[in-house]
Amino acid sequence: MSENVLFDFVQAIALFFLNPLFIVAIFISVAIGYYRVKRERRSFKIRLLPGLTELKRLLTESWPYALVLSVLISGVGLVTDSGWLVLFSTIALIAVLSFNFKLTSPVYFAAIASLVLYGMQGFADGFSLWGWTPGDANLLGNLAVTIPLIAGMLLIAEGLLIRRHTVHYASPYLTHTNRGLRAVAYKVKRLWLLPIVFLVPGDMISAYVPYWPQFTVGSTAFSFVPVPLIIGFSQVTRALYPDVLFPKMGRMIIWTGFIVIVVGLCALWMPILGWAALLIGVLGRSFVSIRASIHERKGPFAVAPQSTGVVIAGVLPESPAEKMGILPGECIRAVNGRQVANEKELYDAIQINAAHCRLQVVDRNGEVRLMQQVLFHQDHHRLGLLVVK
């Protein structure tokens, strides 16, 4: 008996990892890193982060959120529909394969899956797959509450991930201003995988894995179904610094998620409000992206060359520059008492005192501060700075 349970558990885990969405997410994460490194080297001859960073962070940053969401969704008893869940995953797969990560917010998947399911009930009610039919989904019953609540929680998780885990992955690259000068823009393209356990009526898994955990309430059996859920994010910023824009976007998405949850709860008394909540989520999430994109396309470059010093485009992780607290957008005017105007003069000035580096830096607010750092032998020729050339 115990051997059968262990075998079924291993089989279910294998099915999870063989999910097409999981496999596609791995390959796309590698591709994101590859093209990011290629873009950075084209602009600065060096990459900011290793090419496999996106793959390594695919799950490590998101699993705590997945754990909390699984406990909330399954623990509270938010029962979803197996057909809706399959549609949700299919739409997510199509969106990820488009490589347009502005479309990979889970609230879009939830809304489109619900719309498709509604259309199937009207025009393909006789459709059947593995014993499931569109008529099994009660769109004006429990799903009118469950789906908006799940979508709202996913929006909150998305906002938290964007707020906390995008700034350090902002990839700088050189572009041209309207006057032909070279300035810096920043691009973030991230993909997160959240293994979430959903509560589904019927024997969606236990029909194939007999010893998979399930329970019965009255005459209805319920199964715990693990699903790899994808959240993607893509944004270019040039008028605002990444550490200003991305946390702001994250907060707006979080608040949108809370609003969706509140309106979704009202569907307990008026089911149509559940679908109004989904619409609010879609419009709110779209507004955040569109507003940011329009502002960034029209605004002036925040990081542009200056004649009075060397402007910082990026800082390599764990470098002397990072230890000194230098930020993108700041300008180095002098090194070891010598005025500098370009990268060559910057590193020539460092050699004046190869063991100790003193910098005069103008911060983003135009205030001058002095910084100093002891340099080791391997640091003598590079502080770890990407500069606007």
Automatic annotation (TrEMBL):
**Its domain of life?**
Bacteria
* Transmembrane stretches, start-end: 12-37, 58-78, 84-101, 108-133, 139-162, 191-209, 221-241, 253-283
InterPro entries recorded = PDZ, PDZ_6, PDZ_sf
GO-annotated biological processes: cell division
Q: Is Cell division one of the keywords UniProt gives this record? A: yes
Question: Which stretches make up the PDZ domain?
Answer: 281-365
Q: Does Transmembrane helix count among this protein's keywords? A: yes
Which keywords has UniProt assigned to this entry? Answer: Cell cycle, Cell division, Membrane, Transmembrane, Transmembrane helix
Pfam families attached to this UniProt entry: PDZ_6
Gene3D superfamilies in the record: 2.30.42.10
What name goes with this protein? Cell division topological determinant MinJ
Which organism does this record belong to? Filibacter tadaridae
